[in-house]
Amino acid sequence: MDKKITCRPCKEKNNWEIENEFGVVLEKHYKTKDACVKAGQKLADECHCELCVCDTTSCSNE
To answer: Total domain count for the chain?
Structure first.
């Protein structure tokens, strides 16, 4: 799969964010990693994308 959804910590706030397959960070942020990953997996399933979960603000596995 070339397209991916990325769940990662937010750079500015103490929460989690989702970056969609087009590289756009979604407006909704999540208080916990688990909540973010659950929403990210649902989005990945809907758009037939891979889910990438990062523990830092940037992923290096591209």
So the answer is: 1
